[in-house]
Amino acid sequence: MKRALPLLVALAGVLICAKPAIATPQGVVQGGYDEATGQLEAGFKLMALDRVFSESECYASPERVSAILESQMGIDVVVTSSLASVQGFDLVNVIADETKCDRLVLAMRSGTKGRVFVLDSDYGPVYLAAGKKRSGESQAAGEGALRDLTAATEEFRMAKADGTSRLEVLCPGGAHPLGGGMVNATPLGKDGEGVYPHSYERLGAQGGFHVTATLIDPSQDVTASRRVGLQVLCGLGLVPTASPHATTYVHRHETGTATAQCPDGTEVFSGGFQRTNFTTPEIKHGGIVYGGDYITESRAVGTDAWRVSGAATGANGGELTAIAYCADDPSLPVEEVSSTVSVAEGKAVAATTPQCPSGRVLISGGWSFGDSHDGLLADGYFTRAGTWAATGYGWFGSSELTAYGYCAEARDTLDRSDFPREPASGPPVDDEDESHAALYIGIGVLALVLLGFLRRRQVVRRRRRRRLERRIAR
After folding, report:
1. pLDDT tens by residue, 136-179
2. Cis, bond preceding 187 (omega within 30 deg of 0)
């Protein structure tokens, strides 16, 4: 683990990590929503990091998992055969029968009812062993067609090269999240400097949208503060009855794809991804070019699945998880709208979808670079015009970027005044820069008016002086 200490990532987005923490170039890995799940999440973070740096790119054996967690976390850990034989209380169990090269399963009995909490790397979030991986929200479901659309936005700032931040925005008034987006309010630099996502996911229990973002900066010397906006689109009636996850490992210098499939009888209305972990490509940390895996595709496939793809750069790969949000609802299936643009090497370009057909409302979006792995996805977001835009930067070469929007049957009651305008071409316009430009123009106009006034006064004075001189001459 010594080699891992200066690592890139907080292994974005999969879970909110828990104490104890480890240091990385992107800050301290920490977090966890409560004590019952915090140790499982922290343990997973450590072992996912160990996997990235292992020669085999596999999870460690159950015995080694136990030894690493005890050493790094300072807690007692046991190895047990199955979920049916979980030992102790508030004790981390490594499930030997389920833990393999591509899978890690941890469990803990906790709470006043002694329930068993499970963290399965194939799935993602901690779930109850008897809960069949269904959240309280999905069990409650929600009745009726999609209605009463609302939205919320938040703005954040990031200023540390290869630093990560967990960004969240919550729905207003108890509405349920449908989809969300992130936008670089400060446009990307000419060299690609800007904020890029490690994860995009809906927050069911909290009722919002979450992105783990990283600030990519090729210069590393002076990193300017950058504004990044987060959006969530919400409503009543459409709530996922299932949120299937699918995970793959993107090996060093390779690519990978994962598809989350909706259960029979349900249809996908939104989706997202977790766990990418890249740092600024080709930049060394402690003499090592870490790299990591980055997203190249996140979109619906047909009416009942969500597919994500990624590629790895530098010395390391990483995990990639697809998430589909599925329901049996009269507002579904969604109808897709899309648009494709060419992204040149070293350039940032945005693709913007058409508006939804009449009687439908855009509720989520995605993107794809197709079969190319030469572009980095900077953002995907809702626009003020009721469209979806995605921005790509041609980091490794030129490519084609397609933005996908997903439209559900609903009455459009959404106030989009806080959303960015559609990008005419290229990345979104910075409102701050626009206001500065307007100020400079205004100052220029005033200067011209003042200059004209002064010149006119000079002309008047000359005329008076000449008239006076003629009178004296007479």
Report:
1. 454 444 557 899 999 999 999 999 999 999 999 999 988 999 99
2. no
| SS3 assignment, position 396 | coil
What is the full DSSP assignment across 447-470? HHHHHHHHHHHHHHHHHHHHHHHH
**Domain coordinates in residue numbering, the chain:** 2-133, 147-429, 431-474
CA proximity to 198, closest of 17, 388, 346, 403: 17
Residues in CB range of 210: below 8 A, 6 or more apart? 13, 166, 167, 168, 180, 199, 201, 202, 203
Question: What is the DSSP-derived secondary structure letter of residue 421?
Answer: P
299 contacts 368 by C-beta, under 8 angstroms? yes
CATH class belonging to 147-429: mainly beta
Q: CA–CA separation, 365 vs 351, rounded Å?
A: 12
In sequence order, what are the beta bridge partners of 263? none
Nearest to 372 by CA among 356, 405, 394, 390: 394
Tell the residue number behind the tokens 């009855």, with chain if given. 241
pLDDT in tens, 374-426: 999 999 999 999 999 999 999 999 999 999 999 999 999 999 999 999 997 54
CA distances (Å), origin 96, targets 39, 90, 237, 300: 18, 18, 41, 35
Residues facing 235 on adjacent strands? 176
